[in-house]
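#help-structures
NK: newbie question, is this the right format to request a structure? protein is Phosphate-specific transport system accessory protein PhoU
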Amino acid sequence: MLRTQFEEELDKLHNQFYAMGTEVLAQINKSVRAFVSHDRDLAQEVIDEDEVVNNYETKLEKKSLEIIALQQPVSQDLRTVITVLKASNDVERMGDHASAIAKATIRMKGEERVPQVEAEISKMGKAVKRMLEDALNAYINGDETTAREVATKDEEIDEYFRTIQHQAVESIRENPEAAFAGKEYFQVLMYLERIGDYARNICEWVVYLKTGKIIEL
């Protein structure tokens, strides 16, 4: 394969990964919106679309391994393929968590809810979405500096997690009938917090892509 053709193959990998990330970004947005608006139809839509993300990962994995086997890339080229291979796995897990949030929406039908807690979950969801969006932009632009800055936003997500969890506990104490909702709130908070962790992972892969160093941000 000529060098130009090989570079085109690498560009396709980048673009397919970014498309996968954009798809998951939309699913996270819809899953949180469905949860706080009690929209079971929208939640089911997210669940059904999880297969789209799985297919993206399968194709990216197949193409990455094919390039490694046939082209035996080295140095920067090899880092590019490894980055896509590893980062796509992180994005697929984000999609799983978005689907899990959607399933929580369906389980919550008819249960006592706490509007104040859900309002804060909505804010946390938007913060997670912004972080992932910024991480994907850092990836597509190969911007190591921005990636490092975006990774620090995980602290904001963790703070949301702690604050809302405490708020949910207090709400259940005041209204024991909301205990089932509280259990689901804790699960959704955990899913969002984990998505933040995976977004940070994307930032770490950007640093690896640019420097060849595997670090924790």
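mod (FA): yep, format's fine, and the tokens are attached above. The mean pLDDT is 93.
NK: thank you!
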